[in-house]
Design a protein that fits this description.
This protein is of the alpha+beta class. The chain has a single domain, classed as Jelly Rolls, CATH 2.60.120.330. It contains 6 helices and 11 strands. The strands form 2 sheets. Strands 1, 2, 3, 4, 5, 6, 9 and 11 form an 8-stranded antiparallel sheet that branches. A 3-stranded antiparallel sheet has the order 8-7-10. β2 and β3 form a beta hairpin. α3 crosses α5 and α5 runs antiparallel to α6. The chain is globular and about 45 Å long. The two termini are 28 Å apart. About 6% of the residues have low confidence. Bound molecules: fe (ii) ion. The site of fe (ii) ion has 7 residues, from loops.
């Protein structure tokens, strides 16, 4: 039993897919807002709409003074002005909002995606007894051949779901439970609005209103592609481990502390999809 307030609809699979949104009716606000470089899973930039204290930056709320959990985000005036519709959509559930930002992701391969699979730590500093933080993903560009790749077990392709990302796709994911990363084989960047929401009756009612489904058909990917990616990722992980081990042995860095902290650092920054 979770010590947090959670929603039953996430229990079985850890995600829900809502009715699609008519994205074509909206202006492309994501092209007008200001992006900052932020390391994440893949080649990305981010445009914050809400940050820890309203600055144009994307750091985790726990990395600020004073630190806080991923709740009570403060709107970033310059970007909010240029993206009123995106802000309205983030606010629609009426649930508490933490980080809210548009991600720009450059095209990648399926192997890149599997290498980038990670879990978020949205609930760091989140007090027990309060709502569990999950994240909404609204696809803004039309990327029908791209997918949000989710795995319950990072190394087990049989636990994988690939949620297709045409314009207007709306999903909510327990990103602290599920490994996730986006597969984007397109030729243009993909844009997506990511919002941290607190679980509770407001978010539950919103999911119900838009007929949240906790199981959908995966975007087809050939099994040979999956097998090749599994091998490629094993090679990349081994190369990375060897590089870190070699640096850890470097006398300039003493007893390997650097390797350990770098590894942790990577986990921390891989907080988006
Ligand atoms: Fe993430």
């Amino acid at each position: 039993m979770s010590p947090y307030i959670t929603l039953d609809v996430f229990e079985e699979t850890g995600y829900v897919v809502l009715d699609p949104y008519d994205q074509s009716a909206d202006p492309a606000e994501w092209l007008d807002i200001e992006y900052v470089d932020w390391k994440s899973s893949g080649d990305t930039r981010f445009a914050p709409l809400a940050s820890a204290y309203g600055d144009l930056e994307c750091d985790g709320f726990w990395n600020h003074t004073p630190p806080k959990t991923d709740k009570d985000g403060v709107w970033v005036p310059a970007n909010v002005e240029k993206a009123p519709r995106l802000v309205e959509r983030a606010k629609e559930p009426g649930a508490n909002i933490g980080r809210c930002r548009v991600i720009e992701l450059q095209p990648n391969s399926y192997a890149d995606t599997i290498y980038n699979l990670h879990r978020d730590d949205n609930n760091r500093l989140n007090p027990e007894g309060t709502g569990w933080i999950v994240r909404g993903f609204f696809n803004l560009t039309d990327d029908p051949d791209s997918a949000m790749v989710l795995r319950e077990d990072k190394d087990d392709p049989s636990t994988e779901t690939r949620i297709p990302l045409p314009a207007g796709a709306q999903l909510i994911v327990d990103t602290q439970r599920l490994y996730h990363a986006v597969f984007h084989p397109g030729s243009q960047p993909r844009y997506n609005l990511i919002t941290s929401w607190t679980s509770g009756p407001e978010l539950g009612a919103y999911i119900e209103k838009y007929h949240g489904r906790s199981r959908v058909d995966s975007l087809p990917v050939d099994s040979s592609v999956i097998d090749a990616a599994t091998e490629e990722v094993a090679r990349r992980r081994a190369a990375r481990a060897a590089a870190l081990a070699a640096r850890g042995k470097d006398p300039r860095f003493g007893d390997g502390t650097l390797a350990a902290s770098e590894g942790m650092g990577q986990t921390e920054v891989l907080s988006e999809a």
